[in-house]
Specification:
The structure holds two protein chains of two kinds.
Chain A lengths: L3 H17 L2 H26 L8 H16 L5 H23 L4 H21 L1 H4 L12 E2 L2 E2 L3 H22 L3 H11 L1 H6 L4 H27 L9 H14 L6 H19 L3 H15 L4 H16 L1
Antiparallel strand pairs in A: 1-2
Helix pairs in contact in A: 2-7, 2-10, 2-11, 2-12, 3-4, 3-10, 4-10, 7-10, 8-10, 11-12, 12-13
Chain B lengths: L4 E10 L2 E11 L4 E5 L6 H9 L6 E6 L2 E2 L5 H6 L2 E3 L12 H10 L16 H12 L16 H14 L4 E5 L7 H12 L6 E5 L3 H7 L2 E6 L2 E7 H6 L1 H9 L1
Parallel strand pairs in B: 3-8, 3-9, 6-7, 7-8
Antiparallel strand pairs in B: 1-2, 1-4, 4-5, 9-10
Classes of the chains: A mainly alpha, B alpha/beta.
Chain lengths: ~300, ~250
């Protein structure tokens, strides 16, 4: 398939906030990209693995808390803090994956939900460490190659880099041996076992990779907001990412990006004009589920194909 | 000489039902073995016990001398065991070529690697097309599963199993649901499978199956009631009783 068109659209979308020039829009775009990386990480499980998780915010929030604690309380530099945060969240993903993948379907969803809510409860109650409901504030953004990321445009460009690296990896991953095995395990686990694939190990590796990418987005999130709260570990954050994936289109590379854009634009832009923006967002989701149940990206591709066939 | 497949005193119960009851079957290397029996005789359950998809209560299964009784199905595959399913168990979102690549990946370390593209890599694709050519589907390599006919899907079942390079292949009703023309093609396909691969086949189409098979095992109510070459089985009064009395 010719990838020139989609790449051009992506480049224009990424450049648009810079062209707009206003800091507000640049910040909105930064938040979209952070949410997109988080949704893309969940899409590995939901879209390619057929494993619907409601505890994915665990790795997002843990990495964010790790950065906040390491840099504001324990005096670590940013580089070391980022490495430790990624390692810590990924190790927790190893354990959570081993526990939750003893089941699939609804039981898997319930186990991930229980594990995620346990972490949320700990973050709320262990106030000496996490600040409880007050969270942890004053997380400073790092200076990279002499460029202070406190500058919105610099931070946005860093997020563009993170997103592009994530998309490039996922583009390889979904066509790799592990990515193909994951899709096979989603569609025909019984046959996959008989073909020699250790289905649970394939799913576990995907879970860990997915947890690692969620940790990357969590680190970006805490640097963006300079603040972390137990909410970021909880069910609402996991469910929001799930909605992004479903709205944009599961098992597509661009779907999570589009889904993230829809949610963040409603949160940041529409909310400035419409008080009941949450209701409006709900209506948008309902419309998507009714008219394009496969999600916005596959839905638009379907419509485009129909036009192309009609034009011939 | 070591048997290709040696099933010894294998039993499995579901509640009060004896699905497989003290079954012993020895399949020598290169054999074309037909497993016959009316519905509910325990044939598919026996296949599931051999492949590790079900765990037996008693008995052992040896594949080329190696005890595989308690092994998971994916580990049995690594020892050289492959099977097809009576109910199509294929990949609905993949092309036929991708399905065969998945089959080839099952026994290779690349299946764990998330950093190297496999899907459209020529080395894999060419071998997938070769594997499809063995079942006459090479022209359909880029066709999606949903766009193929039932007969082609049945052939794909066999292609996936053969692409694993098995030593023992279990075919579960490969002719089921096929037209007479498609049956003829499938029969030729099964007959073309090289002797290095030992075949054990469940089939209800007696005319075709008996032409392919060299030895026959007949099961009834979970037990082996007769075993022998084609001629002796056709004459055996117990077999007639099983088929006409059930």
């Amino acid at each position: 398939m010719n990838q020139g068109g989609p790449l051009l659209v992506l480049a224009l979308c990424l450049l648009a906030p810079l062209a707009a020039g206003e800091i507000f829009y640049i910040n909105v775009a930064s938040q979209i990209l952070i949410a997109a990386v988080f949704a893309a990480s969940l899409n590995i499980l939901v879209g390619y693995g057929g494993l619907v998780s409601l505890g994915h915010a665990s790795f997002f929030g843990l990495a964010a808390y790790a950065i906040a604690l390491l840099t504001t309380r324990w005096g670590y530099g940013h580089f070391a803090a980022i490495l430790i945060a990624l390692l810590f969240a990924t190790l927790v993903a190893c354990v959570f994956g081993a526990v939750s993948l003893r089941a699939t379907g609804i039981p898997f969803l319930m186990i991930t939900l229980a594990l995620g809510q346990t972490l949320w409860g700990v973050a709320y109650r262990w106030a000496d460490l996490t600040g409880g409901d007050n969270g942890i504030t004053d997380v400073r953004r790092p200076v990279v190659l002499g460029i202070d990321l406190i500058e919105p445009t610099a931070f946005y460009l860093a997020m563009v880099g993170v997103l592009l690296a994530t998309m490039a990896f996922l583009n390889v991953f979904v066509n790799s041996g592990l990515g193909m095995s994951l899709e096979g395990a989603r569609d025909q686990p019984r046959r996959m076992r008989m073909l020699g694939h250790g289905v649970r190990m394939v799913q576990w590796l995907a879970f860990v990779i997915s947890g690692f990418l969620a940790a990357v987005s969590g680190i970006c999130f805490v640097y963006y907001h300079s603040y972390i709260h137990p909410h970021s570990l909880g069910l609402a954050t996991s469910a929001e990412a799930l909605l992004m994936v479903i709205a944009g289109g599961v098992a597509t590379l661009a779907g999570p990006l589009v889904g993230a854009a829809i949610v963040v634009v409603f949160k940041m832009v529409v909310s400035a004009y419409v008080t009941r923006w949450v209701m409006l967002l709900g209506i948008v989701f309902v419309l998507i589920v009714i008219f394009i149940p496969e999600g916005v990206v596959p839905g638009l591709l379907r419509v485009a194909r129909r036009f192309r066939v009609g034009a011939k | 000489m070591t048997a290709a497949l040696e099933i010894t005193r294998l039993s499995k119960h579901f509640g009060g039902l004896s699905a497989v009851d003290d079954v012993t079957i020895v399949v020598p290397g290169g054999d074309r073995r037909l497993l016959l029996g009316p519905n509910g005789a325990g044939k598919t359950t026996l296949f599931n016990l051999v492949t590790g998809e079900l765990k037996p209560e008693t008995g052992t299964v040896r594949l080329l001398g190696q005890d595989i009784t308690r092994l998971a199905p994916y580990r049995c595959a690594h020892y050289g065991l492959a099977r097809t399913y009576q109910i199509l168990t294929l990949f609905p979102h993949s092309t036929l070529g991708e399905s065969v690549i998945l089959s080839m990946l099952g026994l290779r370390p690349e299946r764990w690697n998330p950093f190297v593209r496999i899907r459209n890599r020529a080395a894999y694709w060419d071998r997938a097309v070769e594997a499809l050519a063995r079942v006459g589907l090479e022209a359909k390599a880029r066709t999606r599963f949903g766009e193929t006919s039932y007969g082609e899907k049945r052939r794909l079942e066999v292609a996936l199993a053969l692409a694993q390079g098995p030593k023992v292949l279990l075919l579960d009703e490969p002719l089921a649901g096929l037209s007479s023309e498609e049956r003829f093609g499938m029969r030729a396909l099964i007959e073309s499978i090289p002797r290095e691969i030992t075949l054990m086949m469940i089939e209800h189409d007696m005319d075709t199956a008996l032409e392919i098979a060299e030895t026959v095992t007949v099961m009834h109510h979970g037990r082996v009631v007769a075993e022998g070459d084609r001629a002796s089985i056709v004459r055996d009064p117990r077999v007639k009783e099983v088929y006409f009395a059930s």
